[in-house]
Amino acid sequence: MRPHPTETGRFQVAYGHRRVRAAARLKRPVQAIVRTLNDDELVLAQGKENTERRNLSFIERAFFADALMRHGFDRGVVQRALSLHKAEMTRLLQVAEAVPTHIANAIGPAPKAGRPRWMALAEFLKREAAVVIAQDEITSVAFRAADSDERFRRLYERLARRASARGKKAEKARAIEDRKGRTLARVTLGAKPRFDFDEKALPGFADYLAEHLPELAERFDRERAKET
């Protein structure tokens, strides 16, 4: 414990919170070690206790680091508390920022997931559609019945399949050039074909095409009728 920073005569638990609560419920007095700790020293002590008490998973360390930063602690202090290098600290904070808290809580610690897959999941979840899919997955019966590592695997593989499908569709995009070699547009094929026009290559062409689209549709119908 440490002397309370603002209330004279009172003390503040530095670490061992659960043991203190257990002793209070049992109504048993316990011996405490009192040390004078400033806020930075308190964070270092708590980080040391957390990491020594058990091996925190990647996502647990990520949200612990993020929580300390949000409470206003210096980044260097947080790094020392978790025994992190600068690059690893950056990765933890990036994942904590990208993975919504409720999704991380639904998955749990997932100790077998590891840093690379958590970082990949964070990349998936940067897209709004992926967050919607994740929300659907974490509310499923099968997800809730699984253990933490299996929950991570289910969500990760579902989003990975979606990303793979999107990648395959992107591969079908091709450039449309005129006889002068100018790229007039890029067309993306798939369930929802899309044309992206390059206005710099031929200004006004997109408007011209839109105006004559009914005529092109009629020509397309005539030519298709001839083929059949």
Specify the oligomeric state: single chain
For the biggest sheet, the summary is:
3 strands, antiparallel
Low-confidence stretches: none
Count of DSSP helices? 11
Average pLDDT score: 85
Helix content: 55-70%
Strand content: 5-15%
Number of strands: 5
Structural class: mainly alpha
Principal-axis shape: elongated
**Alpha-carbon distance between the two ends:** 87 Å
| Strand order across the largest sheet | 3-4-5
**CA radius of gyration:** 28 Å
Order of helices and strands: EEHHHHHHHHHHEEEH
Present the secondary structure layout.
Layout: E1 2-3, E2 11-12, H1 17-26, H2 39-53, H3 58-70, H4 75-81, H5 86-98, H6 101-107, H7 114-124, H8 128-138, H9 141-145, H10 148-171, E3 174-177, E4 183-188, E5 194-197, H11 205-227
Helix pairs in contact: 2-4, 3-5, 5-7, 7-10, 8-10
